[in-house]
Design a protein that fits this description.
Radius of gyration: 17 Å
CATH class: Mainly Alpha
Number of strands: 2
CATH architecture: Up-down Bundle
Distance between the termini: 24 Å
Strand order of the largest sheet: 1-2
CATH topology: Rhomboid-like fold
Strand content: under 5%
Largest sheet: 2 strands, antiparallel
Amino acid sequence: MTFTLIAINIVAFFLEQHDPNLFIGLFALWPPSPAVAAVAADEPIFHVWQLLSYSALHANPTHLLFNMFGLYVFGREVEHTIGYVRVAALYVASVVSGALVQIAVSLASTHSYPTIGASAGVFGLLVSYAMLFPHRRVVLLFPPIPMPAWVFATGYALFELFLGASGEEVDVAHFAHIGGMLGAIALMVYWSRSRRHSWLD
């Protein structure tokens, strides 16, 4: 499933290059407008499928590369432990919860811009990895500092919260990242409380 998700993102990225404006307008996550009737016919608006489709679009090859690297590193380990069906469920839950949190923040602020990228799903897999392997060492790329997975995930979450609250990077969906982590945590906790999922006992 991890490689399937990577393939979907890569294919979607190349399709996006044929007509970026069309794909962004239809499939990026646009905040719902309180006055839809007043929106011009050619102006992008929110559609329910954008809660999922936004994750398959990326701004550039670097954006895609970093997300696919994270998806590969954390996704394959989580999938090996809990199976491909649950990894798919985790990814979708993270993407959708990230979208919902991002929409809520957008509606509460003065900024309104489209959200794209698989980061919410990747952050969901990151926190799932940390919950499954809390003491396994993870090494930062820049700088290369090894640390326990739970420290890495917690530090990243706090960093994203700080950046989102500061409002300095309005073009980065920091709250979608946090929402993705929250969605994954909720699903992992739900599974851990079910006796059918002995892999978390």
